[in-house]
Amino acid sequence: MEKETLIDGNMLFSIGIFTILTGFLLIIIGIALSLRQESGSMQTHSNRTDTFGRETRNESPADAETPFHGSPPQKGPKSEIKTGGVIMLGPIPIIFGSDKESAKTATILAIILMLLSLLIFRASFF
Q1: 95, 86 Cβ separation under 8 angstroms
Q2: What is the pLDDT of residues 29-53, one digit of tens each?
Q3: Alpha-carbon Rg of the chain, whole angstroms?
Q4: Would you say 61 and 84 are in contact if contact means Cβ atoms under 8 Å apart?
Q5: Domain boundaries, the chain
Q6: Rounded CA separation 105/111 (Å)
Q7: Is residue 109 packed enough to be buried (19+ CB in 10 Å), middle (13-18) or exposed (0-12)?
Q8: How far apart are CA 25 and CA 114, in angstroms?
Q9: Residue 65 burial (CB count, 10 A)
Q10: Strands (E), the chain
Q11: pTM passes above 0.70
């Protein structure tokens, strides 16, 4: 009598292909969102700045203020970007993050991925 497995080879292959395609799709969506955000922030800043970040004016050189007596350049609101990630080398995760909260989230993700991989590999051997 032949042992039945919970997941056969074709199903495991399909799950693998689906996971890879989902990963590529998430990467493409992330790049598109980053580019959209970057183009939006570029539109808020004027292109009329010199190399030191000061606004240039259409004045004659005699009327222009000297850089030592001018007001400091106005800066927009600062945005804070937090990142984190997990690199899986087989069952061993490498976790990184820019702050503690991102690293915690990446750790939870790593634990979930490790348990998921153990469940899939255990099911394929029975």
Answers
A1: yes
A2: 988 888 888 776 665 554 555 566 5
A3: 26
A4: no
A5: 7-45, 84-126
A6: 10
A7: middle
A8: 22
A9: 11
A10: 84-89, 92-97
A11: no
